[in-house]
Design a protein that fits this description.
Largest sheet of chain A: 3 strands, antiparallel
Low-confidence stretches of chain A: 1-9
Oligomer: homodimer
Helix content of chain A: 55-70%
Structural class of chain A: mainly alpha
Number of domains of chain A: 1
Distance between the termini of chain A: 41 Å
Number of helices of chain A: 8
Mean pLDDT of chain A: 88
CATH superfamily of chain A: Winged helix-like DNA-binding domain superfamily/Winged helix DNA-binding domain
Radius of gyration of chain A: 19 Å
Strand content of chain A: 5-15%
Chain lengths: ~150, ~150
DNA sequence: GACAGATCGTCAGATCGACTGACGATCAGC
DNA sequence: GCTGATCGTCAGTCGATCTGACGATCTGTC
């Protein structure tokens, strides 16, 4: 791979926010895949588990809203997790249009263990920045996401 | 879109580097699309133009290497730009396996104007961070991309 | 109560980006 | 002049996303 060359001459690119974000994200995705591989879930799926594992049980649509994915995407995501016995769908008693999705015991367990691995991976990923700066970096990202003028 | 709800309860998510990067990138992509829409090129395509517009003419594969895209992806990218008369392929005289891709005058012109728009858009996008911090943010991204331990 | 309009989950289909594997043309080393 | 590698191309695949439609269900209004 001509990666070294890429960095040597790529000034035009490493000035670009789009390029940087995309490739940093791609690299993180690789690390994430490696770190989560023993658990048999992707980063996306782990995020779904994390959202569903919060305090109260929520519907598919609510989960989709939090995750920022389409409701049709959520169907496939929950399908996959249910097939692996990590979550359970049941019809809501209050509103029978809704599927309430809850973690199974296996799901809870996997969530805990995989989250540890993810946290370790992220810490290592941000290590080049140094501790305080890593925290700052996360805050900056949160800021960019929150304060969109729309 | 239930974005506000997403932020209110999404603590589990806004702690996640993967979630943050993905969604910040998505938001930037939207802004980028809007900013470049008058020019008829996508952010990807503008990046290709920028790489090809550097000092010396380069081959498709070399360009692909810099951009970090597959060589088969590069074919389609250059196809599109050539169809619009922004670049020209010609066989290299030194190595006739290679396509040397160069900007046309139209391509040069569009590159200049669209790059201005992109720079403005990025500055505005990073505005919530404040000037010095925005610069710091870019440096952090570059660092994460450069210092991968591999 | 019954009906109209909205909401939720589901599915089929389209799109888009990226990759794999193959191919012909060309180059480089022996 | 051969053999093996490289470059560009194309076809096919895969994953993630969205659109549009549908049935089931809820809510508000008369």
């Amino acid at each position: 791979m001509a990666e070294s060359g890429s960095r040597a001459t790529g000034d035009v690119l490493t000035q670009r926010l789009g390029y940087l974000l995309k490739h940093v994200q791609a690299r993180l995705a690789e690390e994430s895949a490696r770190a989560l591989e023993p658990f048999g879930v992707s980063g996306r799926e782990l995020a779904v588990l994390a959202v569903l594992g919060e305090d109260r049980p929520i519907s598919q649509l609510e989960g989709a809203g939090k995750l920022g994915v389409d409701r049709t995407t959520m169907v496939a995501l929950v399908d996959r997790l249910e097939r692996d016995g990590l979550v359970e769908r049941r019809r809501s008693e209050l509103d029978r249009r809704k599927n309430v999705v809850a973690l199974t015991e296996r799901g809870e367990d996997l969530l805990r263990r995989a989250e540890d691995a993810r946290r370790r991976m992220e810490r290592e990923f941000l290590a080049p920045l140094g501790g305080a700066e890593a925290e700052w970096f996360l805050r900056a990202l949160r800021l960019l996401l929150a304060d969109d003028s729309r």
